[in-house]
Amino acid sequence: MDYKLHTLSSGLRVLTVPMPGLESVTVTIWVKTGSRNEHPNLAGISHFAEHIVFKGSKKRPTAKEISIAVDGMGGEFNAGTTKEWTNFFIKVGKENLEMATDVLSDMIINPILSPEEIEREKGTIIQEIRMYDDTPMIHIGDVFEEVAFDGNQLGVDTAGSEKTVQSIKREDFIKYREEHYHLENMLITIAGSFDETKAIKHMEKYFAGISEIKDKMLGYEKFESKQKAPKLKLLNRKGEQTQLILGFLGDGKGYGGRFAQSLLSVILGGGMSSRMFIEVRERRGFAYAVRTSYERYQDTGYISTYSGVNTDKVEDAIKVILDQCYGLASKKYPITQKELTKAKGFLKGNLALGLEDTIGVSDLFGDQELFNQKVLTPEDIYKEIDKITIKDIYVEAKKLFVPEKLNLAIIGPFKNGEKFKRLLN
């Protein structure tokens, strides 16, 4: 799988990934801004800005007219906001690429930003915030990042709070878009079946309205951990099950050892034959769900294990998870060549499955072009994975699994966390 990077006459970058055997194409517009780029008193404006462009544009003044245009192509359209980027995409049959580009560009460049729609959408977003708060197995991720990134905007929920969302006004959107929605900060990706020459002509035509930077772009505060001992955050909620994430602070997107760290997370908790799954679920029956993963931002990251645990067995589950982490790093539980081979197959196989969809391909290439110094193709990534040795994984485990990088988040029926603090120490 190959790609090309084009620069339009305006200076806007377009990354194309041809997939000739398909009938579909996905066009995505990326903006290199997310919740960590916000003023604290406007927390949630990136996510809100993502919502509001669907409510009407210059050519299609209502949400219904935008939806009719996409439905008329049998298309799929959506958007997403993270702590570091916002994107908007439409996936259609290959014959509808120009129409999809017309709809998407008009939404992004010419949103109406109606004050009435803004006020109405506040209610929708507040209900979204409440829904996630009332869903512990989802909310636990936010709680973990609150404790891990305490004092930094990375620790703030992407959706903001009810208070900050209620305070956002039309002029806030205008200023925010001037700060971030400009040529230097945006990228288009096209993945699927398309004629390269025609596709670039469509982008030139429909995205000509994106301007250069008008205002100083608000960057982000780099995360520098001051942590010297394990930290805990506990939310007291009634329930038969306790949600927890136990994790260790680590490295960001460009770190050279990231493939070894990814394999480490697979060995620990990737799949039904992983160490955490066998030890926590199969051998002890403490939980139904347990998994280990790695999350990366530009300047930091973390490896963490999530589990929904029988409330009576939370302490025992934490002991097992810690034992598996520290035991691997100390070689008490050594990595075998068979385990490494299996982990490599798991990682490469999951990547391959994700590339069957043009949306997944756009995500892989778009994220790399925004943040990495070099874009790796799937074939490049497979080669990097194959290079990793057991020794490489031990190096990362010893660096990551230390008490001064340890954080624990818990949502469960506990009034205080003293017994958990004792476990961590």
Q: How helical, in percent, are the residues?
A: 40-55%
Helix/strand class: alpha+beta
How would you sum up the major sheet? Answer: 6 strands, mixed
CATH superfamily membership of the largest domain, which one?
Metalloenzyme, LuxS/M16 peptidase-like
Radius of gyration based on Cα positions: 23 Å
Average pLDDT figure: 96
What does this structure look like?
- The protein is of the alpha+beta class.
- It folds into two domains: 4-206, Metalloenzyme, LuxS/M16 peptidase-like (Cytochrome Bc1 Complex, Chain A, domain 1, 2-Layer Sandwich), CATH 3.30.830; 231-424, Cytochrome Bc1 Complex, Chain A, domain 1.
- It is built from 16 helices and eleven strands.
- The chain has helices spanning 45-52, 63-71, 97-109, 115-133, 136-148, 162-167, 170-180, 196-206, 258-269, 275-282, 314-329, 337-354, 358-371, 378-387, 390-400, 418-424, and strands at 4-7, 13-18, 24-31, 76-81, 86-93, 186-192, 231-236, 241-250, 287-296, 301-310, 406-412.
- The longest helix has 19 residues, at 115-133.
- It is globular, with a radius of gyration of 23 Å.
- The N and C termini lie far apart (48 Å).
- The model has no long low-confidence stretch (mean pLDDT 96).
